[in-house]
Amino acid sequence: MSTARWLSVGITASRIGFREFTAFYTWRTWVFGWFFRLVTQVLFFSAVGYLSDSDERVRYLAVGNATVVVCIESLVVITTTVRERAQGTLALQVAAPAGFAVTYLFRGVYCLLIGLLSGSAVFTVATVSFSLDVPYPRVLFTPLFLAVIGASAYGLGTFIGSLVLRRPGVQWLVLNLSYISMMTFCGVNVPADYWPAGITLATGLLPLTHGLSALRAFLDGMPLTDVLPQLGAEFLIGTAWMVAGVWGLKRAVAGELRRGTIELSA
Fold this sequence. Notes:
The chain has 266 residues and is mostly helical. Helices cover 74% and strands 0% of the residues. It contains twelve helices and no strands. The protein has helices spanning 3-24, 27-47, 55-74, 80-87, 90-95, 100-107, 109-129, 142-163, 171-185, 197-203, 209-219, 224-259. The longest helix is centred in the last third of the chain and has 36 residues, at 224-259. The chain is globular.
């Protein structure tokens, strides 16, 4: 299949994904339901910084919790494998010439794009609400960092999604454990090296850790060239998880085909 054909399939799959998203949410339910929940979460954790009577602490918590929003949204892709199966579209995508992995990745890309929008908006709300000392025009580069972090989390979500394909009952449990673990260990509320060495080593292999560290350093005045290695590490980790996710999807689908359960929803 030519590159142009692959691109056409990807664009079509993305449009279908966005249509499904808009069928589930109206702009009112998204803004006053889901987005308001994200804002409240970030404001709550950021406000904890006032207990230490430290503006720097408030900024640390606000930047960390606003950044993790893009990961929360991107990880929603975990649930799409189960949804595809429940809706009966999994078998159709497997039979399509483009391959299931391609259509799956593009159908769920709205999670990443909505995450980038949400993360940027929440970051702006937190900056204004707490009068954060963020340097201009450096702060304008924040969406770039969020995009790399979100794409990395999307790769992890793809891999986890391949694991829950046959276990639909645990999809939300796994999703919540995934982003809560990242909030706890990846430098959102406390530095990543606060935890024992083994945990710190493990979090170095997860999305967010390196990207958030790069964003903090950049906002603190470090030149972009000096933070690129950390941002590059975030990108490479996300790529590795994406490759593992595509492999996992192909393996999971092959197993369903062997068992003759590709059309079953549970």
